[in-house]
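C-ALPHA CELLS:
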Amino acid sequence: MLKDRVFTNDETETWQTVLSTHEKTRRDQVVDIFHNGLKTLDIQANKIPQLWEINDTLEKISGFNGAYVTGLEDGKSFYPMLAKRLFPVGNFIRDKRDLSYTPEPDMIHDLYGHIPLLVNRDYAQFCQKIGETACRFIDDDKKFHQFERFFWFTIEFGLIKTDDGPRAFGAGIASSIGECDFALSGGPEVIDFDIELIINQEFRIDEMQKKLFILESKSQLYGCIDELVEKVNT
C-alpha cells in the first residue's frame, strides 16, 4: 500500500486556495460527472487526500487506480498506463505563483482534475479503451500523435453542451481556475466535435487554449473510437 504523503504548509495552502476559490464557480462551469466524483471521493479544499484512500474507493467503483509519478509522462508511457486502468498523478503541488494554471501536471491537475471523472464507469471504460487503442499505434509516430491530439481536445480540454449551457468536460479545464474562466468566456474559438479536425489540430501546453471542441453529449465521445481509428488509418 502507498505510504502517507506528508504535505508542506505551502502545498496545503495552495491546494486549499485553488479548491476553495473554484468551489464558488465550478457548479456552473464543469460537467456533472466531475461534481459526482468529488463527492464520492470526498475531495475537499480543507484537506489534501492521501492517494491510497482515493484508490481504495475508486478501484471498487471503476477499477482505476492513481499512481504517483515524478513529472510529465510522455505518451508512450501514459497510454499503456491507461490501458491497465492506471492514471499517473504528479507527486507535487504547484508553486503559489501558478495558482490559476500550470503547464506541468501536479496533484491539483491529476488528483483534483482527472481522478473524480474516473469514478464514472462509462468515462473510465472509455479512458481504458482509448489507452488500449492508442497503444496499437505506439510505434507509428504520426498516427500515435493523432491520438495524443484527440486526447488533448477531449479528455484534457473538451467542452460539452448541456441544458444549462456549455460546460468543461476536460480535466485540464476543470482543474484550472484560469482555464475554466477563459474557456467559457467566449474568448476561445469553439468548434463542434469533429474527429477529422481534432486529429489534425496541433496544440501547445504552455498557454491558454485558444481553440476548443465541444461535444453534443457524452455518448458522442464514448461511441467514437471505431470512427477515430478509421480516420487515423485514412
